[in-house]
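Supplementary Methods, section 5.1.

A reviewer requested that the exact input to the structure prediction be made available. We therefore reproduce it here, unchanged from the version used in the analyses.
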Amino acid sequence: IETTEFAGNDYGSSRRLIEEQFAQGKNVLMERELDRAVQIKRSMPEAVCVYVEPSPTVLAERLRALSRSELELSLRVQTAERLRAMAAFCDRHVCSDDIDAAVREIESLLD
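The structure derived from this sequence is encoded token-by-token as follows.
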């Protein structure tokens, strides 16, 4: 259903295994990078893509705390903006500022 290569090794998720879970009436929850989520959505349009992200204020605070220079901060902000634009295809966006609330929201999607 999706594949990627990292450090010379191939990784991916089996469509057959996922479909077996669906046939048993189970939901399948997968955590993937956006490029892999795009592959899943293309392969299984009925899949629900959920993008979990902090609010812009919290994201800015986190990026500032992680950065050692203005250049690094600028690069991190550009990456975050690129990811946010890529995430536009997702069906739902969940704010992660309150992790308990985020978990409840994601759990409600599985019901």
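The first helix runs from residue 15 to 23. These observations are discussed further in the main text.
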